[in-house]
Write a structure and sequence with these properties.
Pfam families: OTCace, OTCace_N. The chain is of the alpha/beta class. Helices cover 38% and strands 15% of the residues. Helix 2 packs across helix 11 and helix 5 packs across helix 6.
C-alpha cells in the first residue's frame, strides 16, 4: 500500500491490518510519554484546501506522536489563493521532499491527481463529495471496539447521503469487512448512482431502527446545498432526526455514531448526543490512533 485514496482500494486483510495496528498504537495514548520514534526524520505535509479543525488536528497529533516533522499548509492564505494550481503546489511539496501528504480538497478526485504528481504517499482526508477513508476506518475501529466485531453487523447510515463523502467510504469499507449496510434518507438526499452501491436503501428510519446494531447519523451539509432538499428543519428532524424515542426503538446494545460536527436539534437531539450509547467523543480519540496506524503503515517502512 503506497497511498490511501479510497476505502474501495483496501482488501479485507489490509483493512483489518490497519484496525489491528490502531489498536496497538492506542496503548501509546495511555502512557505518560505519548511519543514513539517511528517516523523520526520523515516529513508529513497537511495540505488543506477546506476548513477542517477536527481532521487536520487529528492528523497533526498522529504524525507528531510518531515523531514526524509536520508542516501545516493552509490553502486559504497561501499562494493557492493567488491562483496557484494543485499541480504547482504538488511540485513545490515534491521539491521540499515531503514523505507523506495529507490532502483535503473540495474537488472529487483531487487526491488521485496529487498521487500522480508526488513521490511521497498521499492520504485522502476528504475530496469533495467523493471519499473520506480515514473517517470510515476510525468509524469501523470504533464499532469494533464497542461491539467486538464487524462481521454480520447491521449498520444504518442516515441523512444527507448525497453530499457525504463519509457515507460512500463507509459503505465500501463496512461491506468489505462483512457488515450489512442500509442507507436511510429522503429521496432528494440520495445520489443518482446509489443503486450501484453495495447496500440497501430505505426512506423509513423508524422501520429500519429495530433491526439495526449501529446508526451513523450524517451532518446535513447546508454549505453544499444550493437548492431546497427538504421543506424545513423541523420536517427533516421529524423524518430523519435521532431522538430519545428513536433510540428506544433500537436494540439495547446498539450505538449511535456521528462524524461531527453535530448539529444538535436537527439530525440528533441533545439527549442522544450526550447519551453513553453515542460514540462521538470516542470517535475523535480513536481518530488519532487510526491515523497513526495509517501513517505508520504507509511511511514506517517495516
Amino acid at each position: 500500500m503506497r497511498h490511501l485514496l479510497s476505502t474501495g482500494d483496501l482488501t479485507r486483510d489490509e483493512a483489518v491490518l490497519i484496525l489491528d495496528t490502531a489498536a496497538e498504537l492506542a496503548q501509546v495514548g495511555d502512557r505518560s510519554v505519548k511519543k514513539l520514534p517511528t517516523l523520526r526524520g520523515r516529513t508529513v505535509v497537511n495540505l488543506f484546501y477546506e476548513d477542517s479543525t477536527r481532521t487536520r488536528t487529528s492528523f497533526e497529533i498522529a504524525a507528531k506522536r510518531l515523531s514526524a516533522d509536520v508542516v501545516n499548509f493552509s490553502a486559504k492564505g497561501s499562494s493557492v489563493s493567488k491562483g496557484e494550481s494543485l499541480k504547482d503546489t504538488a511540485l513545490t511539496l515534491q521539491a521540499m521532499g515531503a514523505d507523506g501528504v495529507v490532502i483535503r480538497h473540495g474537488a472529487s478526485g483531487a487526491a488521485h491527481r496529487l498521487a500522480g504528481w508526488v513521490d511521497g504517499s498521499v492520504l485522502n482526508a476528504g475530496d469533495g463529495t467523493h471519499e473520506h477513508p480515514t473517517q470510515a476506518l476510525l468509524d469501523a475501529y470504533t464499532v469494533r471496539t464497542r461491539l467486538g466485531r464487524l462481521e454480520g453487523l447491521r449498520v444504518a447510515i442516515v441523512g444527507d447521503i448525497l453530499h457525504s463523502r463519509v457515507a460512500r467510504s463507509n459503505v465500501l469499507l463496512l461491506t468489505t469487512l462483512g457488515a450489512h449496510v442500509t442507507l436511510v434518507a429522503p429521496p432528494t438526499l440520495l445520489p443518482v448512482s446509489v443503486h450501484t452501491w453495495p447496500c440497501e436503501v430505505s426512506y423509513d428510519l423508524d422501520a429500519v431502527l429495530p433491526k439495526t446494531d449501529v446508526v451513523m447519523m450524517l451532518r446535513v451539509q447546508a454549505e453544499r446545498m444550493h437548492a431546497s432538499f427538504f421543506p424545513s428543519v423541523r420536517e427533516y428532524s421529524r423524518g430523519y432526526g435521532m431522538d430519545g424515542a428513536r433510540l428506544d426503538r433500537m436494540p439495547r446494545d446498539a450505538i449511535v455514531m456521528h462524524p461531527g460536527p453535530m448539529v444538535r436539534g436537527m439530525e440528533i437531539s441533545a439527549e442522544v448526543a450526550d447519551s453513553p450509547r453515542c460514540t462521538v467523543v470516542e470517535q475523535v480519540a480513536n481518530g488519532v490512533s487510526l491515523r497513526m496506524a495509517v501513517l505508520y503503515l504507509l511511511l514506517g517502512g517495516s
